[in-house]
Specification:
Layout lengths: L1 H16 L2 E9 L3 E5 L3 E6 L15 E7 L5 E7 L13 E5 L2 E5 L5 E4 L9 E2 L2 E2 L6
Antiparallel strand pairs: 1-2, 1-4, 2-3, 4-5, 6-7, 7-8, 9-10
Length: 134
């Protein structure tokens, strides 16, 4: 009997410490953004998948995750996906910002739209690129 009460108490504590999520509107953009959910939270860290850096803009609908004791620790985990480019097949990846986009297709094709500015060395099929001086 005491074991049942002890397990029930542990389960209650686990529920209290579990994370919750809400969708909010960004009021201050950048890496330490502010978001309005039920109230405004400022200086929230922004998390993204490995290798992707994202800085939310003012007015973005973002997902705010709350965790910790009392759910006082909050962070922005992402935004509602609103892909504006060509349709993506399952498994494909798209990066976009305004009119610029990069799509990694399942076929191995990389589609780049926008102006490409290369800083550094460029190789094509492992050979350093040399522009034609024709």
């Amino acid at each position: 009997m005491w074991m049942g009460r002890r397990m029930a108490g542990a389960a209650q504590l686990a529920r209290e410490e579990s994370a919750e999520a809400e969708v909010g509107m960004t009021t201050i953009g950048g890496g330490q953004a502010a978001v309005v959910t039920r109230g405004e939270d400022r200086a929230l860290p922004v998390y993204g998948p490995g290798g992707v850096v994202w800085s939310p803009r003012v007015g973005d609908a973002v997902l705010v995750i709350k965790g910790g004791c009392g759910r006082e620790e909050r962070c922005i985990a992402g935004t509602l996906m609103q892909w504006k480019g060509d349709g993506l097949e399952p498994g494909e990846v798209g990066l976009y910002n305004g009119d610029a986009s990069v799509i990694l297709r399942n076929s191995g094709t990389v589609e780049i739209r926008g102006t490409v500015d290369i800083q550094g060395d460029l190789s094509v099929n492992g050979v350093p690129y040399m522009p034609c001086m024709c």
